[in-house]
Specification:
- The complex is a heterodimer of chains A (313) and B (247).
- With 313 residues, chain A is an all-alpha fold.
- Chain A has one domain: ABC transporter involved in vitamin B12 uptake, BtuC, CATH 1.10.3470.
- Chain A has helices at 2-21, 23-26, 29-55, 62-76, 82-104, 109-135, 148-170, 173-183, 185-190, 195-217, 226-229, 232-245, 252-270, 275-289, 293-312, and strands at 140-141, 223-224.
- The longest helix of chain A has 27 residues, at 29-55.
- The two termini of chain A are 25 Å apart.
- By secondary structure, chain B is α/β, with parallel strands linked by helices.
- Helices cover 35% and strands 24% of the residues of chain B.
- Chain B has 9 helices and 10 strands.
- Chain B has a 6-stranded mixed β-sheet with strand order 6-7-8-3-9-10, with helices on both faces. A 4-stranded antiparallel β-sheet of chain B has the order 2-1-4-5, with helices on one face.
- In chain B, helix 3 packs parallel to helix 5 (146-158).
- The longest helix of chain B has 16 residues, at 176-191.
- Chain B is globular, with a radius of gyration of 18 Å.
- The chains are: A mainly alpha (313), B alpha/beta (247).
């Protein structure tokens, strides 16, 4: 029975993926760009939720990884074959995440938030310092032979991968360990779980996806400088999206990423000067009105729906 | 000397201070194989700190904690747990977001000897039955009564297949009939050969369960011996009730 359901879900996902893959053949440039934005934030928010959902650590380091990915492409994009560039970007993202993870995941939640926010700025300043003092270029042109459709397909592949890996983690020992850690870290340790290793592993997996999104997106800009690649707004937007959707479920962040990407797109076009202000208000409303996100609202409704039936039984 | 003759737990000269407060001061304590040792003392005497030092939550300032042949002083909690040390907490800690079987599987899943998935579910159900929670495997932990939460926590600790069990006031807060059930349950664990170090205030339980007792006050050991001898020791009575008034 459950095997049938899994098979049906896999089939539906493959069919959906196939339909989505055909989009660049029909959509015009505007809708393709919009679809790229939607996929970008879906992958970023889902990757964010992979780590922050179970551990409940709020990370503002998204842009640090995203920017490192973009910069890797700016530096190496012309020198090496594309798959190798992506591989190197993933490796840099993973190593950075492990270093940051080991040095910060012992911190309490609040300290972690502040540290990760500072991290993006730190990496940005390091890149600026290096470019100004060593390479004497600030800002680089990205000349790689990659079309908008290529970017779309790569992001679609990343989206499929992030959901697949998230689904696999949830069914693995690591996923079970993370659920226990999320509930009670002390109990987790007393059950024989190496809490630090579990958290760092997940942080690195999440960071690799963020780095890859940055790398894949880099050719869209043609010109990159640190303030573009390391844009702190991305980190905040991802948190808002994941919280709106609900980070405690794998598919939750996507439910926030899709409407909010559309909303931000609309706001930026309609109220270019006030869009960040409106974004801030949206964030406050989400935290007050939907503390468990859309997913939490859904769970509540489902519980209310089932409750009267149980009471009768 | 055969390995069986080795004490399960041997603490020597254990000390730990928090700032100027010496919570545990040069403590010696031994739990022989198959024995229940009671750790007693008034509130704030350092009992829970001792358990935290043994289970690796805290690092000792000095002293040795030998668990079997290994010195585990300062070792990480998860490694000590995997060596076979199970623990319950003073304020009962169960995983409320999970059902009872999952709570027990939390103790089974990270053991060094892994079980297959199906075997793990069977083992979890058997452990629930062992502590008196037969048929509870799919119940959410939030639905349980206080004593059943304690049972569930104990089942999770037993899931580690411990050589030593640390019970931190496991019997506290139970009503008289529950207390009898609880005492019988702990005794049955001892009958199976488990060694137990228990922090307890319930005198009936101490008298009927413990082979020996260590009494602490202000971080120091003030008495040691059989339950009857330490409970009638003037130093112990003074620690609990204060110095006798001059009549």
């Amino acid at each position: 029975m459950t095997r049938m359901r899994v098979a049906a879900a896999v089939l539906a996902a493959c069919a959906g993926l196939a339909v989505l893959a055909l989009l660049p053949l029909y959509a015009d440039a505007y809708y393709l760009a919009l679809a790229i934005g939607l996929l970008q934030f879906t992958v970023l928010a889902t990757a964010w939720g992979l780590f922050s959902g179970p551990t409940r650590y709020v990370s503002l380091a998204t842009t640090a990884f995203f920017g490192v990915g973009a910069y890797t492409v700016a530096v190496l994009g012309e020198l090496l074959p594309w798959p190798l560039v992506l591989l190197i970007a993933s490796a840099i993202g993973a190593v950075m995440a492990v270093i940051v993870g080991i040095s910060t995941l012992r911190l309490s939640g609040l300290h972690f938030v502040i540290f990760t926010f500072g991290l993006a700025e730190l990496v940005r300043q390091l890149v600026i310092w290096y470019e100004v003092n060593k390479t004497r270029v600030l800002g680089r042109y990205v000349f790689v032979d990659i079309t908008q459709s290529d970017i779309y397909w790569q992001l679609l592949a990343l989206a499929a991968a992030v959901f697949l890996i998230g689904w696999m983690i949830a069914r693995s020992r690591l996923g079970f360990a993370l659920r226990i850690i999320g509930e009670d870290e002390t109990v987790a340790r007393h059950c024989g779980i190496n809490v630090t290793v579990a958290k760092v592993a997940l942080f690195a997996i999440s960071a690799v996806f963020m780095t890859l999104v940055g790398a894949v997106m880099a050719p869209r800009w043609t010109y990159i400088e640190p303030s573009i690649a390391f844009n702190a707004t991305i980190s905040f937007e991802v948190v808002i999206m994941a919280l709106l959707g609900g980070a405690h479920r794998l598919w939750g962040p996507a439910l926030g990423a899709i409407p909010l990407t559309l909303l931000f797109e609309f706001l930026a076009a309609r109220f270019p000067t006030a869009s960040t202000l409106i974004m801030g208000i949206v964030f406050l409303l989400i935290v007050y009105a939907l503390p468990a996100g859309v997913v939490g609202l859904w769970d509540n409704l489902a519980r209310r729906w089932h409750a009267p039936q149980e009471a009768k039984a | 000397m055969t390995p069986a003759a080795l004490p399960v737990l041997e603490i020597q000269g254990l000390s730990r201070a928090f700032g100027g407060l010496v919570a545990v001061n040069a403590l010696d304590l031994t739990v022989e194989s198959g024995e229940i040792v009671g750790l007693l003392g008034p509130n704030g005497s350092g009992k829970t700190t001792v358990l935290n030092l043994v289970s690796g939550v805290l690092r000792p300032d000095s002293g040795a904690i030998r668990f079997g042949r290994l010195n585990i002083a300062g070792m990480a909690t998860h490694r000590i747990a995997r060596l076979g040390l199970g623990r319950t907490f003073q304020l009962v800690r169960v995983l409320d977001g999970m059902n009872c079987a999952e709570n027990v599987r939390a103790g089974l899943a990270f053991h060094s000897e892994r079980l297959a998935h199906g075997d793990m579910q069977d083992a979890a159900i058997a452990l629930l039955e062992r502590v008196g929670l037969k048929g509870y495997d799919r119940r959410s932990a939030t639905e349980l009564t206080y004593i059943d939460r304690k049972r569930l926590e104990l089942a999770r600790a037993l899931a580690l297949r411990p050589r030593l069990l640390l019970l931190d006031e496991w019997l506290a807060g139970l009503n008289p009939s529950e207390l009898l059930i609880g005492i019988a349950l702990i005794r049955s664990l001892k009958d199976e050969g488990l060694s137990i170090l228990l922090v307890e205030h319930v005198m009936d339980a101490i008298r009927s369960l413990c082979d020996s007792c260590v009494v602490m006050n202000g971080g120091r050991k003030i008495a040691e011996g059989t339950p009857d001898s330490v409970l009638s020791d003037p130093a112990v009575i003074e620690a609990y009730l204060g110095a006798p008034a001059d009549a």
